[in-house]
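Appendix B.2, paired examples.
Example (i):
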Amino acid sequence: MDSTNNPGHGTRRRTPEVVERLQRSRDRLRDRRAAQRQREQAVSAEVKRFIADWQAITRIEQVRDREISDLQRQMVEVKARAQAEAAEHRHQQALAAANIRAQGYSDEDTAELLEITLKQARRLIAEANADTTEHETRNELPGTITRTPRAADTAANPSGPIAGNESAREQPSDEGSGQMQ
């Protein structure tokens, strides 16, 4: 039996045209299988790239979330510190307004000197009077209100004055006392 014979069809020989058509068909199938392998390899490479990018995105988002959390914590701390500092300055403004009032100025005169409304001046004076009622001490100048340090003040400056210590009282200064922010 010849190798060009078609099995099951007897001993009949294939014509060159049939042999060529069969070879072209085999070549087409081989080319299609090779193209399919290339497509599969390309898809496999893209899937790997996709998964690697997904992992990178996940890591980036985790770092972002951690950094945002840290920044939010810092914002809370900054806001709290600023609020405490501003509250202390407001307290000092209230003391300044009360000291001006204690020197014999009317509420209206105090408001005019400080360039604030009468309502604001009265509020500041009332706040200072309410706060100093607990911690009131008198200085050499009659009617001048000073304060003993708050717990926050002594915590920030442990070597500072001790409440009730006559020599440790704050002395009013000519510069900057009672100035508004």
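Example (ii):
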Amino acid sequence: MNATTTITFKVDEGNLPNYTDEYLAALWHIAQANPAPFGDSAACAFAEHVGREIISRWLGSVPPELWLHQGRHAAKASDAARTLRDDLLRDTVAPGQFITLAEAMLRLGFEEGGAVQESTTRDALIRLGFTAGREPHGLRRRGWIAPGGAA
């Protein structure tokens, strides 16, 4: 005889600090055995909340900083740095102004030009709508022309 049994658990996540250690350990196993697809936001959040409760409980009475560094913070820092670079270029280059890659790198604080710094600067210029071109007068150097002005 083939029989299928479905068991459902309802857990008040706000009550995690009040559950016994044994029950919390069982919740950890339930969270990991959850049949939800990999990356399901509700399943991931529940497992994280249970895990944080377990860690904070067993670390003892001194509340250390548990979550100062997390993977998602790197993405936020990268986004913030990108916004800062964009703002620096937008605020220091007039519409239609010609600027070389080296000059743009200096404005972003890159005193030495490596491949990463050049790529980062080039990405910012493109994101802001600068177009590659030649200096309209004088030496006709290759560089970038800021959006919003005559080339």
